[in-house]
Amino acid sequence: MALIVQKFGGTSVADPERIGHVADLVKTTRDAGNQVVVVVSAMSGETNRLLALARAVNAKPDARESDVLVATGEQVTIALLALSLHARGCPARSYTGGQVAIRTDSVHGKARIEQIDDAAMRSDLAKQRVVVVAGFQGVDEKGNITTLGRGGSDTTAVALAVALKADECQIYTDVDGVYTADPRLVPDARRLDHLTFEEMLELASVGAKVLQIRAVEFASKYNVPLRVLSSFAPGPGTLITPEDPSMEQPLISGIAHTRDEAKLTVVGVPDKPGVAYKVLGPIAAANIEIDMIVQNVSAEDTTDLTFTVSRSDFAAARELLEATAAELGAREVTGDDRIAKISLVGVGMRSHAGIASRMFKALAAEFINIQMISTSEIKISVVVDEKYVELGVRTLHSEFGLDARSETRR
Amino acid sequence: MALIVQKFGGTSVADPERIGHVADLVKTTRDAGNQVVVVVSAMSGETNRLLALARAVNAKPDARESDVLVATGEQVTIALLALSLHARGCPARSYTGGQVAIRTDSVHGKARIEQIDDAAMRSDLAKQRVVVVAGFQGVDEKGNITTLGRGGSDTTAVALAVALKADECQIYTDVDGVYTADPRLVPDARRLDHLTFEEMLELASVGAKVLQIRAVEFASKYNVPLRVLSSFAPGPGTLITPEDPSMEQPLISGIAHTRDEAKLTVVGVPDKPGVAYKVLGPIAAANIEIDMIVQNVSAEDTTDLTFTVSRSDFAAARELLEATAAELGAREVTGDDRIAKISLVGVGMRSHAGIASRMFKALAAEFINIQMISTSEIKISVVVDEKYVELGVRTLHSEFGLDARSETRR
């Protein structure tokens, strides 16, 4: 008998029929002899409906009251799923975040979980009941309702798995696992049976938005096996675990890409200590997230600094940068908001030299110019002109043997 | 400075615009120097929408989970009203029933309030904040969400007024007070400035559904002045208080009527002790509410027993009665589901003889036949053919001088 935490997102519980389907999946897991804790999100569209009501009465809704409001979304789903399980003869009991209790700090809208009381859930599980918990929400020490922010239901699921020492945390989504590349771009992309936490983190951070980074980090920290599977199509999904040294690691597990990037360069700034801080400080202070940063080797006593931001922040970042450039006496500011990033991810590349040069050679053979390069221990990212993104991803997918039809490689 | 509890029902908070209007009313009361606690219901239609979702997943929804589900209705409203008050520069803080806490027993769907913790509300009031509380809901000692049943928001308001020793509990509705008769029937009906609890209870029990009986009983028991007013039209409404012996009581305060009644008679049952129980026991056991009961003086050794039930229970009650009649050897069962009840209510009638005969004489003058009569200390009810209801109410309204244009009588 295993203890399994299952999480279903908004599209999986979008209407009574789908909730019934989720109840079938949960009951199957329980009837196989497992203890099951289910975490659910609000029915898709519900959170936005509630936020629209809030904005209709107040242009700048207070965070505490917004949390009281949106927390009702998951509360509706837990009751409906419990009722749907009852209708199938499966005993079940619902819990709001406050009822568990999932104790958080008091930062409304993006609270962090501090502590989880597992007593009530344990007592229900011992009585063979399915425990249905509202995702995304908690309660602070004064009893105020808090929410964990976007994607918070994944975090709730992992946190419950940690607190209950669950054997597996299953995240049901609308895709049936993690793929070697986006199947919409690469028809030959394959579902991966297995990934390490590190690989999942790199893939998530470069655009394969199957799981929230925060949930993966959390699961990684506490070594809770995560499984990504589809609530619509049956299958084993992708299992994500700590690295197993006995297992032969493939060179590359997947190729991720993002399109919504923009690049800014400040040309000819004095090459002195502190210049990077002076350039990037105001951008960060404006809450604009900076992704890649590249500083060229300086020619004479000036240097060029290039960085990427989200495309939606391009105009604001450029304006800030122009001001800084004038202050520092830089030669000019250039920018390009038609770029894309392609990343190769795999724990195997750690022990293999030559991956980067093989990547660059394959791209050059297709006349794809590389504008920026950034590397981590298990990832190599390149920035290219946006028009090359499909060609680039497909080229690398073939080059590194990910096209193979079999799924036996791992 | 007074402490005022204000309650707004579902139609008063039906959409963001109306919630804004409620916020205006609340702010006006607070700006006049009062401390204000507001109790709100779910936006009209919301509870039914949620119950329809429940039935879509489970034909017989469990009471605990139904409470978790429908309690979200009021939770949405408290957040929206708090946000709407903020938008008007009025500090406010929302509380669910559980957050207050409003402690109830564990009878889901019709819980009774056992205790209210006023500490958090007092602290907010001291900080000049408006306190916004979800009506209709509470929490049992184990932290399960409970609801108080239909009309429970009125009960919440009165219970909070009692716990906080409020100066007045104002119930906002879609009518601007309690009238001497239904204005749709009697165009000359007048709004009453003042009523006693006893009168309000009798009026409520005979069809003037302005307030829930339970809330009036509760307010009466703890002597909390109640005021009924309209959230749509300005005005002082009707104040309901304990009887003031120094005040001259009018004979009659109002005339109420109900149409949805039906009458059943079992004819020729043996006139023995216990026969009323044998006849009515099975009806009560089937959860059919019995209103008036009349037993005629027995002729020979048999008697006739007549009682009224709600029209919707007529068929079921008749079936039960036929079975009992056969068992007891009664002569026959007769019934009529086209009856109406007209009631005269007033604390003044206590000290005045002749009210009943004056009532009967006035009805006789219009050739309205009286089928049944029932009296209490401050009420006389008659059952008549349904077709006479308008004529009967108007006749009595004139007869007892309620038509007067002035509102100065009280």
Can you walk through the features of this model?
Two copies of one chain form a homodimer. Chain A has 410 residues and is an alpha/beta fold. Chain A has two domains: 3-173, Acetylglutamate kinase-like (Carbamate kinase), CATH 3.40.1160.10; 255-399, VC0802-like (2-Layer Sandwich), CATH 3.30.2130. Helix content of chain A is 35%, strand content 27%. Chain A has helices at residues 16-31, 46-57, 63-87, 97-100, 119-126, 152-163, 197-205, 213-221, 275-285, 314-328, 355-365, 389-399; strands spanning 3-8, 35-40, 92-95, 102-104, 113-116, 130-134, 137-139, 145-147, 168-173, 194-196, 226-230, 238-241, 254-270, 290-295, 302-310, 332-345, 370-376, 379-385. In chain A, α7 runs antiparallel to α8. The longest helix of chain A is centred in the N-terminal third of the chain and has 25 residues, at 63-87. Chains A and B meet through α1, α2 and α3 of A and α1, α2 and α3 of B.
Task: Indicate the topology.
2 copies of one chain form a homodimer.
Chain A: E1 3-8, H1 16-31, E2 35-40, H2 46-57, H3 63-87, E3 92-95, H4 97-100, E4 102-104, E5 113-116, H5 119-126, E6 130-134, E7 137-139, E8 145-147, H6 152-163, E9 168-173, E10 194-196, H7 197-205, H8 213-221, E11 226-230, E12 238-241, E13 254-270, H9 275-285, E14 290-295, E15 302-310, H10 314-328, E16 332-345, H11 355-365, E17 370-376, E18 379-385, H12 389-399
Parallel strand pairs in A: 1-2, 1-9, 2-6, 3-6, 9-11, 10-12
Antiparallel strand pairs in A: 4-5, 7-8, 11-12, 13-15, 13-16, 14-15, 16-18, 17-18
